[in-house]
Amino acid sequence: MTPAIALLEHEAVAFVAHEYDSGDELRDFGREAAEALGLAYDQVFKTLLINVDGERDPVVAVIPVSCMVSMKLVAAAVNGKKAAMCDPADAERVTGYVVGGISPLGQRKRLRTVLDETVGLFDTVYVSGGRRGLDIALDPADLARLLNATIAPITA
User: Could you tell me the CATH number of the domain that includes residue 103?
Assistant: First the structure.
C-alpha cells in the first residue's frame, strides 16, 4: 500500500490500481506506463515538481506524458513570474516518493498543484500510484478535488 492508495481509500474515492513491469533501463516512466497498460499517451499523466519564484515549496504540475511542461504557463497559473524544474533529489525528499513513481496524491506535504486543462477531456485519467510500476485510474474530478488543484493550460 502506498500513501496515494491509502489516501484514496480513506476518502472513499473510486479507483483502479494497475501494476506493470517497470524496466530498469527506460527513463521515460510515463510513456512506459502508457505502453505497458495499452493506453494513449494523452490519458496518462506525469507528476513534475517545479520551483516558482524561489519559493521554498515547489509546485506540482500534472501533465499528459505526451506533452512538455511550459515553465511560463506553470508560473502564470500560480501567479508567479519565473519557474524551473525541481532537482530530482529535492523532489524525492519533498514528496516521499522516488523519481518515476512520484504520485500527485499522498505526498508528505500538501503542495500547490496545477492540473493541465486536458485532464477534462477524459472520464478516467491515470497517474502514478506512488511507485514505479503502479498507476492509478480515477475520475479527473476526484483527482482535482483531492489535490485542491488549479486547472490551467500548462503544456507547451
Answer: 3.90.960.10
